[in-house]
């Protein structure tokens, strides 16, 4: 007989299941808000019960330690749950309210007080935790404002919830990456206001596709600017924790990122995001011609026009050469009218076609760095309600929380037998090239330099 999951684990399972349904991210985010309210309230109530009994779930009274002198070990035990519906700003949610048996005194939740059926626990706990820098005092203050002083959580309960969030993120930032082998590494940044009186600053992010075709969220860190030093430190940290060089690094045209990627992963190829480049080109074109220039730009990379020439399009240098020829045609057509736009395109022409060396079935997803653009956009949309974050910890914690959950619903890459052969050939050529053979006219010798000189 299957064991019933504890309420907190059951809610987490519901949240995880949202990302396996293939639904639009915006719709999923709204459901996460509703389930997030249940999760936070349920976690708080369970923490109150732990504090009341002086021990955690499944822990026996005679086995509980008394290292925490603030909580006496009381007799009694949990006796299931009863459903309780609470009104929140995300709509009514139902939680499993714990029931206790054989206690010497009645348990009363200070979160709900007596007969409380309306709470802003989602807003107060999430905003106080993520937005106010995980301050226990702020959590207590906002809960007291929303529910009244008699319904405030104890300091130990608030501290437990906040410390768990911080610990989870810190552990993720220090995890070993030696077991991660990537074909593709995507790098991008999104800007948020983190410091008083300062402009929006970037949060650097990296995610990738493993050699098995699975998506993985790799790294996240705040920075003062998208400089070479900032990106170099970020990528170096990933490498020092064991991340091996990928076959291809996909990014926008940020000079600092490009330079850092070439320094940290010199053997990896680099792909310039074609979507960002299209925007760069169109920014130098008059409004009346933008539709025509845009169509001409994307026609450069349309492989359907090559099907009449080849029975089967083969990725590789020949395909790169043919697309480069189309870039020359585009330049000849528009150079006289928009020289600045053509100059912008030609400046990155080599890195715009690197993806053509990779499997055809991956082309449309590795030629741009917008893999999580909508996720970043959703994070920024919610951050507008907050205004300015009080510091790096609160900002990065919120961004990480959104991306970490969203990453579980990212689609992987299809790996065909032909595609795997192409990737393996590239891996041998780029990351594990054969050692240079000894010239035939040089005799082999085991002598040391010293004996040879003698």
* Proportion of beta-strand residues: 5-15%
Q: What string, H for helix and E for strand, traces the elements in order? A: HHEEHHHEEEHEHEHHHHHHHHHH
Major β-sheet, in short?
Answer: 5 strands, mixed
Mean pLDDT: 77
- How many strands appear in the DSSP assignment? 7
Number of helices: 17
Major beta sheet, strand line-up: 5-4-3-6-7
* Helix-strand makeup class: alpha/beta
Poorly predicted sequence stretches spanning 5 or more consecutive residues: 66-70, 114-136, 146-153, 444-454
Q: Per the principal axes of the C-alpha atoms, what is the gross shape? A: elongated
* Helix percentage range: 40-55%
Short description:
By secondary structure, the chain is an alpha/beta fold. The chain is built from 17 helices and 7 strands.
Walk me through the structure:
The protein has 454 residues and is an alpha/beta fold. The chain folds into three domains: 7-59 and 68-168, no CATH class; 175-270 and 389-416, 2-Layer Sandwich (Nucleotidyltransferase, domain 5); 274-368, no CATH class. It is built from 17 helices and seven strands. The strands form two sheets. Strands 5-4-3-6-7 form a five-stranded mixed sheet, sandwiched between helices. A two-stranded antiparallel ribbon has the order 1-2. Strand 3 (182-192) and strand 4 (201-210) form a beta hairpin. The longest helix has 29 residues, at 25-53. The chain is elongated.
Task: Please tag this protein with its features.
454 residues, alpha/beta, Nucleotidyltransferase, domain 5, 3 domains, five-stranded mixed β-sheet, 46% helix, elongated, disordered C terminus
């Amino acid at each position: 007989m299957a064991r019933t999951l504890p309420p907190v684990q059951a809610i987490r399972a519901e949240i995880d299941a949202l990302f396996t349904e293939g639904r639009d991210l915006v719709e999923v985010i709204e459901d996460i808000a509703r389930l997030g309210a249940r999760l936070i309230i349920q976690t708080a109530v369970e923490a109150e019960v732990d504090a009341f009994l002086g021990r955690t779930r499944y822990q026996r009274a005679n086995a509980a330690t008394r290292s925490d002198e603030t909580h006496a070990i009381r007799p009694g035990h949990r006796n299931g749950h009863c459903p309780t519906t609470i009104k929140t700003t995300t709509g009514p949610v139902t939680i499993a309210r714990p029931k206790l048996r054989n206690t010497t005194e009645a348990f009363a939740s200070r979160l709900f007080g007596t007969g409380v059926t309306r709470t802003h626990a989602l807003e107060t706990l999430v905003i106080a935790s993520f937005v106010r820098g995980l301050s226990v005092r702020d959590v207590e203050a906002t809960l007291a404002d929303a529910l009244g002083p008699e319904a405030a959580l104890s300091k130990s309960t608030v501290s437990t919830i906040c410390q768990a969030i911080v610990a989870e993120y810190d552990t993720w930032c220090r995890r070993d990456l030696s077991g991660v082998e990537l074909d593709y590494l995507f790098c991008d940044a999104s800007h948020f206001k983190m410091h008083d009186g300062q402009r929006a600053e970037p949060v650097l992010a990296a995610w990738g596709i493993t050699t098995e075709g699975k998506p993985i969220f790799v790294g996240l860190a705040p920075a003062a600017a998208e400089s070479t030093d900032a990106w170099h430190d970020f990528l170096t940290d990933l490498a020092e924790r064991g991340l091996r060089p990928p076959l291809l690094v996909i990014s926008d045209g940020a000079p600092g990122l490009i330079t850092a990627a070439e320094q940290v992963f010199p053997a990896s190829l680099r792909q310039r995001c074609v979507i960002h480049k299209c925007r760069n080109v169109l920014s130098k074109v008059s409004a009346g011609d933008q539709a025509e220039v845009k169509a001409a730009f994307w026609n450069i990379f349309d492989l359907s026009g090559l099907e009449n020439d080849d029975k089967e399009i083969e990725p590789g240098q020949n395909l790169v050469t043919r697309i480069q020829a189309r870039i020359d045609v585009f330049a000849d057509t528009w150079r006289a009218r928009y020289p600045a736009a053509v100059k912008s395109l030609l400046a990155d022409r080599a890195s715009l076609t690197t993806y053509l060396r990779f499997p055809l079935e991956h082309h449309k997803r590795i030629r741009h760095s917008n893999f999580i653009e909508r996720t970043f956009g959703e994070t920024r949309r919610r951050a507008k309600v907050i205004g300015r974050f009080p510091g790096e910890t609160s900002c990065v914690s919120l961004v990480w929380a959104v991306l970490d959950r969203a990453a579980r619903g990212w689609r992987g890459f299809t790996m065909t037998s032909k595609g795997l052969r192409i990737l393996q050939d590239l891996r041998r050529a780029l990351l594990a090239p054969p050692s240079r053979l000894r010239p035939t006219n040089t005799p082999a010798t085991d002598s040391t330099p010293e004996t040879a000189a003698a």
